User: Fold this.
Amino acid sequence: MNSLKNIALSSVMFVVLFFLPTALFADSISIGVVNISKLMKEAPQAEEFSRKLNAKFHPIQEKLEKQQVEIKELERRKNEDDISPREKNLRERDLLKRKREYRRKQEDLREDWRFARGLALDKVQNEVYEAIHIVREKLGIDIIIQEYISANKRVDITNNVLEYLREKIRQKQSNRNSNRLEKNNDSHFISQ
Assistant:
């Protein structure tokens, strides 16, 4: 995987270095760099999706934790001395059934969470790429390089993209608040 990245990076650098002198004679070309991993970690959209995932899956996780406590209690009670062998056998069967059900639900939760997380990451990545494109156009930059070793702060637009993403979230939240106010006002007029 790293060798593919190195080949891709080398290819991009070759193209830039090969065509850069020609382009300098024709027109000036502007280059910017962006740190994608920083954007994916710090984008407010990533935090928003993380909160949504937690809100969706936390109640399910809590139910599983309660179920696990119940299973431990059943295990403890299974070996009580004052029960008949038949009752002990029934409890063991019930316990095995509950353990299987718990493991299945736990695996389903993990699978659903991984799937939802993948979708959320795709959405965040698309928003980040869209933001990079918009900021690149606003700043009049011709080429954006994502993978780089070192760059002058003058050409690093990562913070510009982060600010754009933050503003986009603020606008989204502002629109939600406006819609809530409109709904409350509409319901107020309807009830009168």
Summary: The helical segments are 2-26, 36-42, 44-78, 85-139, 158-191. The domain at 2-56+101-182 is CATH 3.30.910.20 (Protein Binding, DinI Protein; Chain A). The mean pLDDT is 84.
